[in-house]
Amino acid sequence: MSKARVVADGPLGQTVLDLFDDRVKVLPWSVAINGSNETVDGIYTYGHPHLNGEMLDRLPGVKVISNYGVGVDHIHVRDAAARGIPVGNTPGILDGATADMGFTLLLATARRLIEGDHYARSDEFTTYDPGYMLGREVHGSTIGIVGMGRIGEQIAKRASGFDMQVLYHNRHRKPTAEKSLGARYVSFDALLRASDYVVLTVPLTDETRGLIGANEFAKMKPTSILINIARGPVVDTVALTEALQTRQIYAAGLDVTDPEPLPRNHPLLTMPNLTIAPHLGSATEQTRRKMAEISVENLFRGLRGEALLHQVNI
Ligand code: NAP
Q: Which tens digit of pLDDT belongs to each residue from 238-256?
């Protein structure tokens, strides 16, 4: 059987290449941008390359788009559906790792861990001082989860271990989460006003782009901390920079930014009240292995015309 021809945004990780097991001829992303005279059977997205209908029209043989990851805001899923092309993703298996990262950022930001780390290594640290680097309490505080989905529920579980009061906001109430996690449904406005920690776990959509901007920072407590493990554009970067500069909020912890990465001279990168990670939400050896397995399985199923393990609905 001839090899499937698959366009991918490289370089691909070795685990993915091993799982392809020489059954795939990998074509460069430039083929998606410029088209090809030869048939392309599938598309595999590993990073977050932009993919829309125009590109799909240049590749009429494509039977499947498989994404390594759960968030598909970079793929125009409606354009794919309009052309009968299923889009696969990897939900469910990365919730724990991503929530762990959210809590890592929350704890590190509240307790000023990165500042403390730098200080502890520096020549300036000569004597212990009970007055330096006081942070904010985590246990017993109030957390507001915006997007009580798969990852949001894992955040709520961890929060209850820290005796936190859990508030959440979604477009729809989730009675199961309320019952099993003791989470309380509140309006978006009430969540912003009451939370010590606002944690973002919504997908990036037209509705959630810029969800947190100047108006929202104005409603948050001056002692509150924003944690974004969703997607960078859910937060307005200009408004965030101002809110941190003016101490309108206490601090922020970001796994994702807009743009990503931030320009190297961006003022956010100089702020001590920002903890930042380079999009590490699902970045554990175990979870990334599962993401590779599911996304490669989705690809092969789609190439064979079979139902995917996980298909994104519009
Ligand atoms: P999910 O299970 O679909 O949960 C998303 C939640 O957001 C749902 O409960 C949904 O509830 C809510 N929501 C959607 N639109 C909303 C809106 N306009 N206002 C308020 N709530 C809204 O998704 P998930 O698997 O938890 O993943 C969430 C996102 O996390 C992904 O899309 C991805 O972008 C991001 N992510 C980031 C990383 C990372 O590395 N940092 C890793 C994995 C995922 P309703 O439908 O009721 O509104």
A: 999 999 999 999 999 999 9
Please identify which of the residues 5, 48, 112, 279 carries the catalytic annotation: 279
Q: What is the mean pLDDT of residues 109-127?
A: 98
Residue 1's pLDDT is: 60
The predicted model scores a pTM of 0.97
**Could you tell me whether strands 197-200 and 24-27 are parallel, antiparallel, or unpaired per DSSP bridges?**
unpaired
230 Cα: distance to centroid of ligand 1 (angstroms): 7
How open is the CA angle 93-236-200, to the nearest 5 degrees? Answer: 30
Say if residues 64 and 42 touch (Cβ distance below 8 Å): yes
Q: Select from 211, 264, 274, 282 the least CA-distant residue to 242.
A: 274
Q: Under a CB-based contact definition with an 8 Å cutoff, are residues 156 and 177 in contact?
A: yes
Q: Ligand 1 centroid vs 149 CA: distance in angstroms?
A: 6
